[in-house]
Amino acid sequence: MKTINDFNFENKKALIRVDFNVPLNDQFEVTDTTRIEAAKSTIIKVLEDRGAAVLMSHLGRPKGVEEKYSLKHIVEKVSEIIGVQVKFVDDCIGDKVAESIANLEDGEVLLLENLRFYGEEKAGDVDFAEQLSQWGDVYVNDAFGTAHRAHASTTIVAQFFPESKCFGNLLAKEIESIDKVLNNSEKPVLAVLGGAKVSSKITVIENILDKVDHLIVGGGMTYTFIKAQGGKVGDSICEDDKMDLALEILAKAKEKNVKVHIPVDVIAADAFDNNANTQIVDVNEIPDGWQGLDAGPKSVENFDAVVNQCKTILWNGPLGVFEMETFSKGTIALGNSIDKATQNGAFSLVGGGDSVAAVKQFGFAEKVSYVSTGGGAMLETLEGKTLPGINAILN
Ligand code: AMP
Description:
Blueprint lengths: L12 E5 L16 H15 L3 E5 L18 H8 L4 E3 L5 H9 L5 E4 L6 H5 L2 H8 L4 E4 L23 E3 L1 H14 L6 E5 L8 H7 L5 E4 L4 H7 L14 H13 L3 E3 L3 E5 L8 E5 L8 E5 L1 H12 L3 E5 L12 H15 L3 E4 L4 H7 L8 E2 L3 H8 L5 H7 L1
This protein binds adenosine monophosphate.
The site of adenosine monophosphate has 16 residues, from strand 12.
């Protein structure tokens, strides 16, 4: 696996695909800088080698050129974080960019305009990728968030750098962390899968059964598993058409000797509302008119015991509707258990979908071993897919 540390960028231009798809408020201010900070060490390495960095990214989902999606809005924030005044050019291909590149000196950083102003980016257009390829001597992919897309800048462009392409620090770290969980893991291995629906996690569960010793199924998925086994789930979220699948998963898990842990009690509410009336009930006995919105105290205790006997922990998805304080306690307790296990030497990885939001909201980001930056990319990796952006560098 080639990384930027295998290259010396002196007098060279690194064409770096970063993921600066950051959230902006109405004043076009960056409201979460995580992704910019995550790319910092790669950019700094190039500058310290006395090379120049050409940064390319997408922002949002523009339909053609739309000013509100211009990357010019983030130039000052990127400059502040990198510690260098970043130059900007309001295009990503063409003469204007060629001129900016010609004027770019070692130690400088140039940010190109939003790649998705061109439909060719998402189409994976080869000519467009070739035009992008002119802007660097070495292609560096550091955008895990888009590594599952075969877009021009994430995958296709790599073919124009047969000998001089590599992973940036962030992407290398993502690959290493996933490998530590899925392939080179210390046993026992635990996956905690929460979130809303079985249907969005089913492929992950199926793939992960070959990799783990314990599986905690929580969140809204609980109720499909419970009803499938004959429990009463009241008005809880439940996918009736996935009940057979839930039973199949349980059978497969047994066959593979994977211990499945499902909540035994839940916080049930009489409405999907933070101020609803609540009661703690047996997961199999949820009254009609009530819905399970969080794991109950006994479940939390059970999960704590499981977490603390494991050496590798993957966490994807909350145990309840964590956005509402009343139903956030199960997720917080799980975070505390994983924190403790991590302090005792376990490797813990959080990622995929919206998991990261929960982890950040409750301050667990610094307490787990690694928080993945890619929602969809992480989910696809957990599903066992090889990501095109990663393949393009490896092959
Ligand atoms: P996901 O993106 O699949 O990880 O799902 C995250 C969402 O699942 C969060 O927005 C939670 O509010 C939601 N969720 C978790 N538990 C439940 C539940 N028991 N009922 C309804 N939604 C839930």
